[in-house]
């Protein structure tokens, strides 16, 4: 560790310490009406419109009407074909199937992203699969090389039920996808499209890490497992939403190495905005030059101020923009 810090200092860089993360400023918050299953689990800005996905719905995504302070979710339906085998072991798949009646859906959609052509992609956590929703035509599951799941599990990821893929990002050209493994261990992976199959370059795994992390003091809880809740690609960089730490981190798209982080704990954990639970609720992330949209999945819990609907927060971009410090 000492050698790594010395190398950074010699290169003229300043290591970003946890207690030095700058705070983002909340500009507005918006309750969302009209999500059938609630549980907002992913956000994406697609051709100027903000889209959302719920992990309780298997047959629709949502276009968010944000013209008013109280937003409305407009459902856009689809019929997903049967899910292909991804290489998940039998036990993990059966746990997902057993819990699907309680969850309200089989697919457990946890993230949404889109390319510059307007094609949307949603990731199914329970099946470790990616569904493409094209502008024109029928939805189809991407043909992903089973090496993705095999390499992830060899690196300690995707070993536990409900701790699989939690976020997704695609490049503008629509030929490279990044996936975030949630926890125990968390990590980042990448696949590229080669003709009709999506597979790895040299390795699918960019990074993998585990271990506990102390949440912000406002939560008043013990250390929790490091996690990723969502993933976004902006200005050629990956941005991870780290739920228990209440932060956004900019990372290298090639290695997953963290470059800079920003906290949203100060405004996101005021007394009125807290839930009576031991875990974080920030589940969805979308970035633009002006700031970040963060979706809050309340999981049917009621906030201290009585708010029971999903929430979307708008945080201003940090001073110097998201590329600050490069």
TrEMBL record:
Q: Where is the signal peptide?
A: 1-18
Pfam families xref list: Phytase-like
GO molecular function, one example? isomerase activity
Where the record annotates domain Phytase-like, the positions are: 39-185
Write the record's keywords in alphabetical order, separated by commas.
Isomerase, Signal
Q: What is the originating organism of this protein?
A: Pseudomonas taetrolens
Q: What is this protein called?
A: DNA topoisomerase IV subunit B
Does the keyword section mention Flavoprotein?
no
Taxonomically, the superkingdom here is: Bacteria
């Amino acid at each position: 560790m000492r050698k790594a810090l010395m190398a950074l200092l010699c290169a003229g860089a300043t290591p970003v310490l946890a207690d030095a993360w700058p705070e983002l400023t909340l500009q507005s918050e918006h309750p969302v009406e009209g999500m059938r299953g609630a549980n907002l689990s992913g956000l994406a800005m697609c051709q100027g419109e903000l889209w959302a996905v719920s992990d309780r719905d298997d047959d629709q995504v949502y276009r968010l009407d944000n013209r008013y302070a109280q937003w409305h979710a407009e459902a856009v339906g689809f019929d997903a074909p049967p899910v292909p085998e991804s290489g998940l072991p039998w036990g993990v798949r059966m746990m997902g199937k057993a819990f699907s009646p309680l969850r309200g859906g089989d697919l457990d959609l946890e993230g949404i992203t889109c390319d510059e052509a307007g094609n949307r992609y949603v990731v199914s956590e329970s099946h470790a699969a990616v569904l493409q929703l094209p502008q024109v035509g029928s939805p189809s599951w991407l043909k992903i090389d089973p090496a993705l799941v095999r390499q992830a599990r060899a690196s300690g990821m995707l070993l536990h039920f409900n701790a699989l893929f939690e976020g997704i990002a695609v490049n503008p050209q629509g030929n490279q996808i990044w996936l975030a493994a949630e926890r125990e261990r968390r990590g980042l992976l990448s696949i590229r499209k080669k003709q009709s199959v999506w597979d790895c370059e040299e390795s699918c795994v960019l990074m993998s890490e585990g271990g506990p992390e102390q949440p912000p003091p406002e939560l008043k809880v013990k250390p929790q497992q490091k996690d990723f809740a969502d993933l976004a690609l902006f200005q050629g960089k990956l941005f991870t939403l780290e739920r228990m730490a209440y932060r956004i981190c900019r990372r290298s798209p090639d290695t997953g190495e963290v470059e800079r982080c920003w906290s949203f704990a100060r405004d996101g954990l005021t007394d009125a905005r807290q839930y009576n639970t031991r875990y974080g609720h920030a589940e969805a992330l979308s970035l633009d030059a002006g700031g970040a949209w963060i979706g809050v999945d309340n999981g049917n819990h009621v906030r201290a101020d009585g708010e029971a609907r999903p929430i979307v927060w708008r945080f201003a971009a940090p001073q110097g923009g998201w590329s600050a410090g490069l």
